[in-house]
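User: Please fill in residues for this 250-position structure.
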């Protein structure tokens, strides 16, 4: 299982990264976790536009789903003819929301390009991956996602405030790819996002092997984000996600 960070900028694209998008590959199957704004551009540095086998959207905030619109254009108006539909997993209402985002009638919306599948909590097979979805703690319906393949696993927090469900999902995972949107400070809103320290605490409680901090908001100092996580009790390696970086999980 190989993870490539396409976009790791939190809430909106930054100068060095699109918004959230992660490419996970195994056995030749290519799955995208989220497709935030700007991601379709950087994605083409790593794979062909039509080499994606499935897309999984954690939630319907723009910075996690909006580039499904340009991807619909690319699949629909390809000079060689429309490309066959691929599955797009997302929360209830994904098909309608994406049609609306592009100004399409809800029916057929984007149905010729994407087979929309409603995500629910639990485990399903997507290509060679066992994908487990669990509700996390964010103002709209949001799924944390765990991918298991050949005895290895990675867990993606999506956007979340403090979440026991995330700890359960990430139990003994090899990699916790966890959002760290906030820097420590007074008056942080609850049930929205994590600080880097909280991300590390979740990794500790889950017994994760390593922690990668992501959803890095452009106005934060990334070095301080890493420093705050490093000051926690988490004993494993901690790193910052960076657009273009890949990691082999074995
Ligand atoms: Zn976000
Ligand atoms: Zn969000």
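Assistant: Residues filled in for all 250 positions:
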């Amino acid at each position: 299982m190989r993870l490539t960070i396409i976009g790791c900028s939190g809430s909106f694209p930054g100068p060095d990264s699109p918004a959230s998008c992660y490419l996970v590959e195994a056995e030749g199957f290519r799955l995208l976790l989220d497709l935030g704004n700007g991601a379709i551009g950087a994605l083409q540095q790593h794979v062909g536009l039509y080499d994606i086998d499935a897309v999984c959207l954690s939630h319907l905030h723009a910075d996690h789903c909006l580039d499904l619109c340009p991807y619909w254009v690319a699949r629909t108006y390809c000079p060689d003819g429309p490309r066959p539909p691929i599955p797009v997993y997302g929360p209830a209402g994904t098909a309608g929301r994406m049609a609306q985002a592009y100004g399409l009638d809800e029916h057929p919306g984007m149905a010729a390009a994407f087979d929309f599948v409603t995500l629910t909590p639990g485990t399903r097979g997507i290509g060679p991956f066992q994908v487990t979805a669990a509700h996390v703690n964010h103002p709209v319906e949001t799924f944390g996602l765990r991918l298991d393949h050949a005895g290895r696993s990675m867990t993606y927090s999506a956007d979340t405030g403090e979440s026991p469900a995330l700890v359960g999902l990430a139990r003994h995972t090899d990699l916790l790819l966890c959002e760290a949107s906030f820097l420590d400070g007074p008056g942080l809103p609850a049930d929205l996002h994590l600080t880097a320290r909280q991300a590390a605490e979740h990794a500790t409680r889950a017994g994760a092997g390593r922690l990668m901090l992501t959803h890095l908001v452009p106005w934060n100092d990334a070095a301080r984000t890493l420093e705050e996580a490093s000051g926690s009790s988490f004993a494993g390696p901690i790193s910052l996600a960076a657009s273009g970086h890949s990691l082999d999980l074995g």
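For context: The chain has one domain: 2-248.
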